[in-house]
Amino acid sequence: MSVYTPVAEAELSAWLANYSVGKLVACEPIKAGIENTNYFVTTTQGRFVLTLFERLPAEELPFYLNFMAHLARHGIPCPAPIADLSDQYLQRLNGKPAALVTRLAGKSIEQPGVAECAELGALLARMHLAGRSYPAYLENPRGPKWWRFAAREVAPFLGAEANALLERELAFQAEHRFPDLPRGPVHADLFRDNALFDDARISGVIDFYFAGVDTLLYDIAVCANDWCLMDHASDRRLDEPRTRALLCACHAVRPFTPLEREAWPVMLRAAALRFWLSRLYDYYLPRPGMLVHQHDPEHFKDILQLRIDAQPLWAA
Fold it and tell me: Which among 168, 190, 203, 259 could disulfide-bond with 198, CB atoms 3.0 to 4.6 Å apart, if both were Cys?
């Protein structure tokens, strides 16, 4: 959520005339993140988020927007896309595909505890159940095919040790596909900063622009590798009480299969590999832009190595 495409207030006011959301009161660029241009938009009728899509393929955008609309209809607290006067979710602004969605109350939390991890687990399970009736299909855009592409792109920038780790893990994951795990549309990027809390409850899940169809367990592993770490910032092992809270709350809503329990260590590694690669890619191959926020690739390299060394067992 960086700002690559500036939007002047006059341009935005004219664009909003295509919607029934009132007149522009204020707009504020959102500085966190790295993928799209985002603004908080306040009008006389409410609060919204404007997203200009910088590099997502245009043919993929309906999947994300319709998925959010589907989940919102099913009671999942996520941004609801706003249709324009011609009943379309997707428009163009300053030469970029653009969408307007509702802005949700609440704020993200930096250090989730056991209660927050349990809240997340229940929400994930509800989201996965609601996603079963979503008819569109888009393979996880940051899945194994992208891993191999990204690994080739970043290899010239890495040392022998890092490249060897990448090659070993790509080979390991290629041998552990688990085609019989439950699958469906997943968020695939539900880090702490993509969940909003209000009065100890999750009031919003945001940033669905890495969503796609994958194993449901992968979605949970992505969360565990960010939400369930030990308290000390440099200790990237999984905290057992937090992990147990996440998994037990999820299981209470959508019971896990025996195969999911077996696949858990592999999925934790897959989730760590994906985010190590994406951080390497954004670090070494950045796009020119304003207010760009990059993440340290070493964080997920360490997590991957720990998951390989420790082989975390099912904690539920």
Answer: 203
For 79-126, what is each residue's pLDDT tens digit? 999 999 999 999 999 999 999 999 999 999 999 999 999 999 999 999
Instruction: Report DSSP letters for 194-263, one per residue.
Output: GEEEETTEEEEE---TT-EEEEHHHHHHHHHHHHSB-SSTT--SBPHHHHHHHHHHHHHHSPPPHHHHHH
What is the radius of gyration, based on Cα positions, of the chain?
20
Residue at 4 is within a domain: no
Tokens 């590099």 appear where? 55
Q: Which two tokens stand for residue 212?
A: 């796609």
- The tens digit of pLDDT for each residue in 228-279 reads 999 988 899 999 999 999 999 999 999 999 999 999 999 999 999 999 999 9
- Residue-range definition of the domain harbouring residue 215: 114-310
- pTM to 2 decimals? 0.95
- State how far the Cα of 202 lies from the Cα of 282, in Å rounded to an integer: 29
CA 182 to CA 38: how far, in whole Å? 33
As a whole number of angstroms, the distance between CA 180 and CA 178 comes to 5
Q: How many domains does the chain have?
A: 2
Are residues 174 and 268 located together in one domain of the fold?
Answer: yes
- Determine contact, residues 195/226, Cβ cutoff 8 Å: no
For residue 306, give the CATH number of its domain: 3.90.1200.10
Q: What are phi and psi of 181, to 5 degrees?
A: -70, 150
φ, ψ at 16 (rounded to 5°): -70, -15
What one-letter code names the amino acid at 13? Answer: S
Looking at the structure, tell me whether residues 53 and 179 fall in a common domain. Answer: no
**In this structure, is residue 298 part of a structural domain?**
yes
Residue 204 DSSP SS3 = strand
Residue 73 lies in a domain: yes
